[in-house]
Amino acid sequence: MSADPDAGGIELGREVAAPEWDAFLDELPGAHFEQLSGWAAVKARYGWETLRLVARRDGRIVGGAQVLTRRIGRFGRIGYLARGPAVPAGETALALALVRRIDTEARRERWLYGVCDHAYDGQALAAAMADAGYRPHLPGIPPSGLMGATAVIDLVGSEAELIARLRPDVRRGLARARRSGFVWREGGAADLPQFRRLMVATCTRRGAQPTPPQPDYFERLWAEMGAAGRVAVFVLRMGDEDIAAAFGFATGRTLRVWKVGWDGTHSENQPNRLLWWEMMQWARAKGFRQLDIVGLDLADAQLALRGEGSMTAFRDGTTNFKLGFGSQIRILPGAQAKFFHPALRLGMAAGGAYFLRSRWGRTLLARYWARAGQS
């Protein structure tokens, strides 16, 4: 890692492994797992390269940004900053300095474009980046499917206090599940194949493609982060069968439940309410202060905040379930993109954004992205 004196002391590194960076994230409230070096190590298996910027004061890391880059076909490189920059609350000037350094590297490496999917509290930075030439990220431009809202469960308090925050129907469903013979446990690496099968079963019922698509993705995550306790898998069993499971990341004081799976059986006994409740209890016992549900339909979240949400009004069938645990809705800063290639900048100025928003534009981009090997 080398420091650039012209960039305000910001160091630039390309090493995948970064234990000091991970230790900083462990102490940073709100740090996200996509900024961990273990996440970069797994993405490196699928064609992504690491660009990590670190800012120091008196020798100590005070902020930074882990950017993933990759070449797309023969045309150029893109950059993706997921849930960053990672800086303490209120350090908007530092975050903007990191973004400016990313811009410098993007021009040096001749990126096609870069995308910033902000940290949860990145609203002030998003406003500043708009003045620096960043525009709302268009859904048709990869990476796609970015999260616009989530829900966070406060774990501070006694078990009785957590139960009191549950919606009445969730309390009733939880009581029923407890009487039904389910057995919950924290799992391990041996449970990952069954977890993936359950996740795929859930996606099949919903008519969706499983993400990530790689069959070995969770094993790779475990290999990179399992020993440090930064990933966890939870399993719910009935008799001799594991029927539901979840995979999460532990960063700082937050457990983020990233993926879930269920085989669809025993629905009358509410197994998933018990799965989530026991994850809450596990996280609270481990000293976590919140559980992030990791993903809430944006339109549903806005409906709920206006007091207009209901099982019939929500667009996503999982929204009502997710909001039943005393969850606090978080509307996230919208992702932003900046085009660095002159032809792309010109094309966007000439109306390319309208084409990319169209069904034809999104289809063409999706086909090209698939051919380029996006993962």
Explain this structure to me?
The chain is α+β, with helices and mostly antiparallel strands and 375 residues long. The chain has 2 domains: 2-145 and 334-371, Gcn5-related N-acetyltransferase (GNAT) (Aminopeptidase, 3-Layer(aba) Sandwich); 149-331, Gcn5-related N-acetyltransferase (GNAT) (Aminopeptidase), CATH 3.40.630.30. The protein has helices at residues 19-27, 37-44, 92-109, 123-131, 159-165, 168-178, 192-206, 217-225, 271-285, 298-305, 319-322, 342-357, 359-371; strands at 2-3, 11-13, 49-57, 60-72, 76-84, 111-118, 135-136, 149-154, 183-186, 231-238, 241-251, 254-262, 290-292, 328-331, 336-339. The strands form 2 sheets. An 8-stranded mixed beta sheet has the order 1-2-3-4-5-6-15-7, with helices on both faces. Strands 9-10-11-12-13-8-14 form a 7-stranded mixed beta sheet, with helices on both faces. Strand 3 (49-57) and strand 4 form a beta hairpin.
